[in-house]
Amino acid sequence: MKLSLVDKLFNIFNYSFFAIFTVVCIFPFYYLFINTISNNDLSNRGLITFLPHGIHFSNYFEIVKLPGLGNAAMVSLGRTLIGTLLTVLASAFLGFLFTKDNMWGRKFWYRFVVITMYIQAGIIPWYVTMMNLHLINNFAAYIIPGIVAPFNIILVKTFVESIPASLQESAEIDGAGYFTIFWKVILPLIKPIMATIAIFSAVGQWNQFQDTLFLVTDSKLFTLQFVLYKYLNESTSLAALVKGSMGGAANLNLANMQTPTSIRMTVSMVVVLPILFVYPYFQKFFVKGVMIGAVKG
Amino acid sequence: MRKGLSKFLTLAVTATMVAGMVGCSSGKSDTKTTAETTDTKELLKLDVFSMTANFAGDQTGWFAKVIKDKFNIELNIIAPNLQGGDAKYATAMVAGNLGDIVVFGADDDKYTNAIKAGVLLDWTKDGLLDKYGKDIATYPKAIEKAKTNFGKETSVYGLGHGVSNMPSTSPSEGNYMTYGPDLRWDLYEKLGKPEIKTMEDYLPVLKKMQELEPKSDSGKPTYAFSMWPDWDGNMMMLGKNFATMQGYDELGFLLVSANEDKYENILDPNGYYLRTLKLYYDANQMGLVDPDSISQKFENATAKMIDGQTLFSWFPCMDVSYNTQERTSTGKGFEFVPFSEQSVYSNGFANYGANQVMSIGSKTKEPARVMEFVNWLYSEEGIMTSYYGPKGLTWDIKDGAPVVTAFGKTALPSNDVQVPAEYGGGSWKDGANQMNYANVNVNSINPTTKEPYNYAMWKSTIADSSKLDKNWQAAMNAFTAKDYVVKNDMISVAPVTKFTAASPDSANQQKMNQIKTIIIQNSWKMVFAKNDAEYNALSKDMVTKAKGLGYDDVVKFWVGQAEKVFAARKAVK
Q: Are A204 and A146 in contact (CB under 8 A)?
C-alpha cells in the first residue's frame, strides 16, 4: 500500500522522536559506563562526556577491594533471592485463595489487604511497628514485610479468574484438596504471572535501601544499594561538616575525604548491571503476564 | 466449610513457620553484644551516633587496634549525614536509644530534646565523672558550661568540643588561620610581590598572575576564583569571606565583629557583603571568575585546585590539595598573602567548649567503661593517639622534643598510605578516628612536651619546611601565617563564651528560609551580571524582596542575639 505524504511525514516524525527518546534513556547508562572505563583523573574532573579516553578496566578490580562491598553484595543477593521466592509463593497462594468464594471472610480480607495500598502512616509509625516486632538490625526485616504485596495478589487473582473453572472442578471431582489443586493445577498454569511478580519483586528487593537506612546500624547487614547511597552522600555531608566546623577542618586533607568519582560510578554500574541483564530475559513474560488476565473468555 | 477453615489454618501455620525460620536463621539480630560483667574486660561494642561523622560502619585500622588493645572496645559508627539525616535522628529518638556515644553537630534543639527525653546519661550520676573522669576534670570551665546551660546547674550531659585551658583571647588556630586569602606564591613572587592595600587591589594582581599562567597542568584555562554554591547557608557563603578577612563573621543575617561591639546586616549598602559581591562582579568582568562556579560542587572546585586551575584560595585548609610535596619542593604552591587593611577573624580558645557536643547514651550497658574511654580522649596520651596515632608510628619523642617520623611525613595529615601490620594495617586515612569530634583543641600546649599537640606547629616540623615555605618565611619574616598576623597585629580574636545563640522562633525561621533563598539566588546572579545596569537592578530587587518578606524583623532578632554575645564576651574578659 502506498503511503500518503502525511503518513510519510508522520513516520519520519515518529521515528525521530522515539530515536531521540531512546538516546535520552540510554545515555545515562552509557555515560556511567564510559566514565568507569576511562582514565580516572579525567573522569574525576568531569571531562569524559561522549567518548571514553584512556580505556582501562582496573576500576572494577579496585572496587572488589573496597571494605564491606563483598558482604553487601551477598546480603543484597540473599534478600533478592529469598524475598522474591517467598513473595511469589505467598502472592500466588493468596491470589488463588481470594478467587475461592467459600474462603472464610473473603470480602473482608481482600479489602483489608488492598486498602494498605492506599494508606501510608509515615516513617515514625512504621519504625515503631518494626521496632516492636524486633525487626531492627534483623535480616528478616528485608524479607517479611514484603511477603504480602497487594498489587501482586490482585494480579494473580485476576489471572486465576481467567483460567477456566472447569479445570479446577475436574480436579475437585477427582478428590483433590485445595493444596493439591494449587500445586498441581494452578501453579503450572500461572507461570507467566509468576514471572511477572518475580521480576517486580526482584527489582524491588534489589533497589530497596530505605529499610537499611532506618532499620539497620550493623554494617554486616548493609545492602549494596545502601553502600552506594553512603558514597553518594559523602560529598554533601562533607560540605555540611566543613561549613559547621571550620576550625576542625583545618588539619585535614579535604580532597582525600571523599570517595573518588570514578569509584562511585563503578559501584553504581555494579549495582545496576544485574537488573540490566535479568530484565530483558523476563521481558517476554512481563508483557504477556500483565495483560493476559484482562481479557476474559 | 471445613475445607476453607483447614486451608486457612494451614496457611497461618506455614506463615508462622516461615517467619520463625527466617527470624531464627538470620543470626544477625541484635548486634549490641555487650560484656556480661563489669569486672572482666569482655569485648564491648559501642554504637557511636555521630552527627559530624562522614563515615558509617565499623571503625577499622590503626585506631581500632589502639582502642581494642587498650580498652577491648570496638566502635560502630552511625552517621546520620550519610544515613537518613534528621529522619534517622527522629527514629532513634522514638526508639529511645541514640546509641552508646552520641556526637551532636550543634548544641541546638536536637541536643536539648535528647536531654529532655532522658536519652542522654548524666555524667554526675553515681559519681561517674568523679571516679572515671580525671582528665575531663582538668577542663573545669567546660563542665561549668554544661551544668549551667544544659544541666540545671547540677548535671553534665555532655561537653562542648575543642576545649582548652589556653587563654580565650589567644587565637586557637594552628599554623594557618581559617580564612586567608592565599595566592599562588610562585606567581606572586614572579610579579615582584606587589603591595596589596585593600581587598579590591587583589584583582589587578590576579589578572597579571592569570596572564603569567593562562593554562593549568592539564591545559585547562586558569581562573582566580572557582567557587561553589553547596556551602551556602543563610547567604552566599563566599560572599562573607572578605568580611571574615576583616574581622567579621556571620550570625544569622548579620556580620558581627570578632572583638568590638559592632555589627552590620548583610544587605547594608555600605557593608562588606555587598562590597564583596561587587568585587566578584568586577572580577567576572575581567575574566577572573570560573563560569562553572554557579553550578559546580565543592569537590569539583577541589579537583580544579589540584589540577592548578585556580589562583586564589579562601580557605588555607584547602591549599594542601595543590601543595603536594613535588610542587612545594620546587617552590610552587599557595601561601598567605594578606592585604594591608586586613584583620583576620580568629576564634579564641574555647575554654567553655564550643558548640559540638559529645554525650553518652543513657541506655548504655557499661557506663563506667564508656566514661573511661571518653575520659581517655581528654588525656595527653589520648589526644596524641586519637589524632596522630600511637607513639612511634607517625611521631616520636627525640631528646625530649616531639618529631614527625619518616612514615608520618608521608601519612599526615590524612593520606592514603599503608600502615605497617603491627600497628593495625590498612590505610592511614581509613584507620583514623572516624567519630570526627575534636574533644580537645589540638593547638593547645601539651604540658609534657611544652609544645602544641598539633604536629604542624612543632619546632622540628617548621625547621623542616619545604622550599615554598622557606621562601615565604624569608619574604614575610614570620614562621607561619598565624605567626605573621599576630606579629603584625592583623588579627581579631573572638573570645569563645558560655553563650549559646538561640534559634529563631518558627515565624522568624520561616521568614529566614524564604529570604535566604532570595538572597542566595540574587547574589549569584549579581556576580555573573552582564553589565552595571543588570547588577544594580538585581541588587535593588534583592533588597526589595527581602524587606517585603520581613527581613527587618529577622534582623531585629539577630541584633538581640548579637547584643547577648557582646555581653557574654565582656563577662569572659
A: yes
Q: Testing the interface with B: which of A254, A262, A263, A264 to mutate, by most B Cβ within 10 A?
A: A254
What is the gyration radius of the CA atoms in chain B, in angstroms?
Answer: 27
Q: Please indicate, yes or no, whether residues A42 and A162 belong to a single structural domain of this protein.
A: no
Q: Identify the residue with better confidence: B573 or B283.
A: B283
Domains contained in chain A, number: 2
Does the beta-carbon distance from A256 to B297 stay under 8 Å? Answer: no
Reported ipTM: the value is 0.73
Structural domain includes residue A297:
no
At the topology level, CATH places domain B44-165+353-457 in D-Maltodextrin-Binding Protein; domain 2 (3.40.190)
Name the β-bridge partners of B345.
B492
* Contact between B397 and B388 (Cβ < 8 Å): no
Residue length of chain B: 573
Please say whether the beta carbons of B265 and B199 come within 8 A. no
Domain boundaries, position A200: 65-292
With CB atoms and an 8 Å threshold, state whether B28 touches A221: yes
Q: Which residue of A has its CA nearest to B307?
A: A45
Distance in angstroms (rounded) separating the CA atoms of residues A150 and A116 = 8
The beta-carbon neighbor of B90 closest among A124, A237, A254 is A124
A233/B233 touch (CB, cutoff 8 Å), yes or no: no
Pair A249, A286 in one domain: yes
Q: Please count the other Cβ atoms lying within 10 Å of the Cβ belonging to residue B74.
A: 16
- For residue A64, the tally of other CB atoms under 10 A from its CB is 10
Domain spanning B182-347+479-572, CATH class: alpha beta
CATH code for position A152: 1.10.3720.10
pLDDT in tens, chain A (297 residues): 667 889 999 999 999 999 999 999 999 888 888 888 887 777 776 677 788 887 888 888 877 777 778 888 899 999 999 999 999 999 999 999 899 888 888 999 999 989 988 888 888 899 999 999 998 888 999 999 889 889 999 989 988 888 888 888 888 888 888 888 888 888 888 888 888 889 889 888 998 888 888 888 888 899 988 888 887 777 666 656 655 554 444 445 555 555 667 777 888 888 888 878 877 777 766 666 555 555 555
Domain with CATH 3.40.190.10 in chain B: 44-165+353-457, 182-347+479-572
